[in-house]
Amino acid sequence: MHFLGKHLSQMEISDQDSSASASQTEGELEMDEEMDGDMEGERDKKHMGSPNPSLSTYTTTLRAVIRIKMKYQAMKKRRQELAMSLGGAKALTGAPTRTSPKIFTFDSPTLSSFPTLPSSIPQKRKRRKKKRVLFPNSRGARAPPKQEHSPVKYCLYLLLAIVFIQVYNAIENLDDHVLRYDLDGLEKTLRREVFGQQGAVGALLSHLKEYLSTYIHNKPLLVTLQGPTGVGKSHLGRLLSGHFRSVVGETLVLQYYVLHHCPQEADALHCARNLTALISKTVNRAVEEEKIPLFIFDEVEHIHKEILDALWQLLASKQSNEYLNAIYMFLSNLGHAHITKHMLHNSSSVFMVTSASGHYSKFVKELAPILRSTLEMLHPLWTEAEILPLGLLEKGHVMECFLDEITREGFYPDHTNIERLADEIEYYPEVGGRKYSRTGCKQVVAKVNLL
User: Fold this and answer.
1) Residue 404 and residue 112: Cα distance in Å, rounded?
2) N or C: which end of the chain has fewer CB within 10 A?
3) Which residues are 431's β-sheet partners?
4) Is 145 helix (H, G, I), strand (E, B) or coil?
5) Taking the CA atoms of the chain, what radius of gyration do you get in angstroms?
């Protein structure tokens, strides 16, 4: 019995050592059975060859206990060898190791006993707080001063926005003010009705557009159209008068014919007073309606000095604002001799004067100083005037006048008949292949009425 107790205590110790493994594959079980058979054969041989006959009397239970003990020892040794071989293979090939299930014990846990987390699981990054830069100072570390936004900056932005809106509104108001006078329609009318004076028409429209683009001015606009007889001065004045009556009203347009309104020189002073009163009344009405009036003076070569003095007082800049917002237009043949002489002597360089604005500008540049000196000798009123000379009409322009008048009267526009009528007009001697009319289109209406 003492021998049995000793073997049982050894078996309990071996059971505690082999408690780390509890699973076994089929191959391991077969190997263990073969080992058990070999061990039983060796044990039988030992019993048979042993001199002590008391071992044969062991009971079946004792034999089973010994068999289990030896079996566990063999299993433990076998697993240790297998674990060592598998550990080396994993280091070489990266194959996963086979581990036996863990059995709970009261031993203190270690870090190796916990399964490691897979590295593929993304971990949430911790947001690092921005550290404030500290500057050295005699008083100690301090944070840099924060850059504060000045309210003046926002006031500047507001001021720029207000200026932009004001400029935009001013531009819109200028466009609306010009559209009120329908200068595009006036341009179409003048280019269709006036023959041979396209350069002067373009310059006149340029002055009107510039002046009518705003309502407040520091001086009135004075334009004087100078040219020989029959070049279309009175016709141009009638077209302007009719257009402005349609856009600003009948009461804001004054067409003054000197020989009709004041033919006698004895009545010049009285005419001057009446004209001043009429202009003041028209100007005041224009201020109420916020429009610019138009004053057209035809046959100015016959105007009296008293009337020119009265107009000079109205055109002076010392007058109140309502007198400064007005358009004055003078139509006369003053200086026509200079215009005729210039065109006849320079016909080769002025043949495009009636169709090209560039040539007309050169034409005005050459004639304006001569005409201005001539007009200023008559009265200082013309010192403030914009002088636009009208050139002589060629035979082709006279034929256009006949065609237009014949069409108006309802006659058939026969080219042969028109050319015959144009040949009846008196012309200057041909210069440079061009024939200029002495009377322009002045006799056209009379000759058409004889048909």
Assistant:
1) 117
2) N
3) 434
4) coil
5) 62
Query: Residue ranges of the alpha helices (H) in 94-232?
Result: 151-181, 183-193, 198-212
Sign of the dihedral defined by the CA atoms of residues 331, 335, 341, 347, in that order: negative
CB 390 within 8 A of CB 400: no
Q: What are phi and psi of 255, to 5 degrees?
A: -110, 110
Q: What gap in Å lies between CA 133 and CA 217, rounded to an integer?
A: 63
Strands 294-298 and 386-389: unpaired
pLDDT digit string, tens, across residues 229-265: 999 999 999 999 999 999 999 999 999 999 999 999 8
Handedness of CA 152, 157, 160, 166 (dihedral sign): negative
The residue among 240, 284, 234 whose CA lies nearest residue 260 is 234
Residue 395 host element (H or E): helix 395-409
User: From CA 373, how far away is CA 360, in angstroms rounded?
Assistant: 20
The one-letter amino acid at 198: Q
Strands (DSSP E) contained in 9-134 are: none
Which of 172, 322, 296 lies closest to 240, judged by CA? 296
Residue partners of 429: CB distance under 8 A and separation at least 6: none
The one-letter amino acid code at 173 reads N
Helices (H) and strands (E) in the chain, counts: 16, 5
Dump pLDDT digits (tens) for 47-77. Answer: 444 444 444 555 788 888 888 888 888 888 8
